[in-house]
Amino acid sequence: MSKTLFKFSVAIALFFFATLSLQAGKVSAYYDAPYASASAVKSKLQKAGFTVLASYSPASKNYLKVLVFTNAKLKSAAAKKLRGFAAVERVLIDNKTKTVHVTNPEYWLKAFLQKDYSAGTAKSVKASIAKALGSLKPTQDVLDSGSIAKYHYALSMPYYEDMLKFDKSGVKGKKTLFTLKLPNGAVLVGVKMSKASEKFIETIGEDKALVLPYTVLIENGKVYALHAKYYLAISYPLLSLGEFMKISSTPGVIERQLKKALK
Predict the structure, then answer these.
(1) What angle do CA 55, 239, 19 make, to 5 degrees?
(2) Given Cys at both, which of 71, 209, 242, 257 links 193, Cβ 3.0 to 4.6 Å?
């Protein structure tokens, strides 16, 4: 082999190695799964050992169905101080586009469990999801693996721990979509907000509508919610600043809606 050809071969090998390393450092927020009806997806999840807590149509769009689900491993992992948001995963069935998107446990458990994250739990939950839904293909909605736990959208924007705190005791009955009690006594509650407050999905992407329903965590006599500026941004990791500005009023609207839903 000539020196020129050898150098070229080495360069190609290094390029592919660098490419694979870069890809390995990225984690997608979602997977695409084979299309099936909402009722079929629900049945498959239940057969795989999950409990489906709610079926929800964000912004009252009947062609969109979000199923919120959990299992024993998720509940156990989330039963730590202010980690309860990690207790559920979500799947979106879009009957208009005939697509199914499901949350990636690695991404969301890293985000919500922070230093309590366990790769083994994420791997186990993903295996159960794949058993239920079939082949999972990562979407392009990625963040660097090391930046997920410390994620914030931009300078001065909130982190995971910068939660909204309410001196309330719970959620009004008519606003409650589901209630999930965790082993540590905390309770995760799905909240039904107004149609108008959820219409932001029309602007920044209905394919991420599984960001809804919004949840609150009741723990030690107080109610917590993820700050919408954090939660929407990490749910739409490819969101541009221009797109974010188009929904700049949404975080305030969500906070007011949550206050109205609480008792």
Answers:
(1) 105
(2) 257
